[in-house]
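Forwarding these from the shared drive since the link keeps breaking.
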Amino acid sequence: MHRNHLNALLQRYVAAFPQERALADRFAAFAAAHTDCLLRTCPPGHITASAWIEDAAGRRCLLTHHRKLDRWLQLGGHVDGEPRIEHAALREAQEESGMATFTFVQWTPELVPLDLDVHTIPARKTEPEHEHWDVRFWLRAAAGQELVLSAESNDLRWFAPTELAAVTDEESVLRLGRKAMALRALTR
């Protein structure tokens, strides 16, 4: 399974966030050790993709109240073998929001993930506990699109950055908000 694109994304991530080299190196080592890391059938865990979605004005972010996990999170999911991880993040954003048109927010000439996160997914029914190695991208939704709740969500809502701490204590979600705020002046 092709992991070259993932490795290129990780190298760009290290260049943008050198203080997070150890985490990017863990991702690269995981991908090197598991040729099937882009498939949800990879036993210890797998690469996933998610999106920090902001509205067209850049004033609010979109979160979903995840049905299975019962918490407010960014939108995302399995890459299902897609080697261009950003395409999977875009697909998940479209499927889970009902919106069709997004642009990737960039602060560098080449696309760089906004964040990396490894988190444990608890065992459920026939699925054992496993890890999601989440590659997170920053998307901007085009104006005038309606939200459509997916079967994976209890709710879907826009939040101002100042409201995030009131709806979630998930450090990885709060970190996404902090990173986007810090990089906003550099965006294209």
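-- next protein --
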Amino acid sequence: MAIQWVDVTRRAENHSVLVMDLAMETMRQNKIGEAFGLSKPFAPKHYRQFAGARWFAQEDIDQYVGLLKQASHRGDLKRMGAALEKRMGETRKGADEIARLDVRNASWEELEEAFQRFCQIAIDHWFQIYHYIFLGYFLPDEVTAEVAAKVPDPEQQSAYLLTLFSSDKPTEMREENLALLQLAEKIHKEKLDVHSPVVEELIENHLQKYAHLGRYYFRSKPYSGENIVSRIEHLTAEDIARKKKEFAEQRNLPQKAKEILRELELSKETTDKAYDIKQYAYCSNLGDECYNYLVHQGAGLLQEIARRLECTWDELTAMRHGEILEALRKKEPLSPSKKNELRERIKDHAILLEHGHISILTGEALKGYYAREAKAEEKFTHLKEFKGLAASHGKATGQAKVIRNIKELDKVRKGDILVTAMTTPEFVPAMERAAAIVTDEGGMLCHAAIVSRELHCPCIVGTKVATKALKDGERIEVDAVKGIVRKL
């Protein structure tokens, strides 16, 4: 019987093979099953990266969602959310240990041992890898149902729910944004030159703490001084005043959520679910931030491995972790034929996990797979308006800028509407410039939803059609109260 594949997360382009291989190893080592405390192993039978997206078989989704529902009904999500947050801290601790290694003077055996440690940290990190996505299939709806029964006005419902679903804890992105704002305010007030030694030192201090937030797994680079200067130069005095007010409001969100819960007198079960949503909203962002920190702190190790294997960063991360370990044991540069194979993977690939076995398709095999698996893309340019989920309140009008990969992010100018499949940490500087954000994918716990609430930027997620219905330069209205995108 043919597999019923479901595209569960799309980030505009493929992750590197190394990211996917380690994530699949998380599944093969039963880390997901351990997160649920299962006596029997649990791993998806069919999982893949293909055509820029991550896919599950429908039967695996049903089983995964079923386990999460059982955990929710047992009241286990609080424990699991706390365990997830603790694991993120362990990732950072392990990353710092790797950063302290003298990899330049390490033997081949020591390098292999260090890389094995790096991989195991990454494998352990994702033990609740898709929890936040599949919790979004039912948990927000269960809270929404009780709120809607008590609050008849749709706009008031939405306002309450956004407060209830917002994290009580500041993400690292929010902390970085506030630090950047304070730096920009100092520059404005003291009329400092952004290229002066005083400001350069302040920026360097900022980068020492937050540079890793510019990364996204093994692609993208850490924030640079040039990135920080550009972001500061986009902030006017009016922007700074407005954002200071917004940050003050965010600090009051936990108290506002408590007041809403008291006012509505929600059941204990629903109240617990609201706090579970808050925790997983926080952890979904934290998961990316800590993995990016691991890559940032491990960059010296990976660069030394690439140097000894005489390959580029992209070629190294196009390998499975077992291939890298095998190459380290040989103690010699990669062969020309291996490099050619890796370059094919960089161009495009499909990586599949089927009944515990991992395979990679490139070249002619990949073309055949596309022919069998890819569906013709439906056209939606005729739509005058379409709906999605209002993830961050507000309204905005502006020019649509359709972003299909991270190389196009510079297209987004101040006041534009950022339109994409789904955002990632690399998008944050562009999200700061945008008047509103619209995505094809996602729910209340996705990156775009969380970050847009942190930025107080109107956002509609889960439209399914935005990147197909809109063209660059079209003037549109985003009503992120009603969840409607309208062409003007």
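The longest strand covers residues 395-403. The chain is about 55% helix and 15% strand.

- D.
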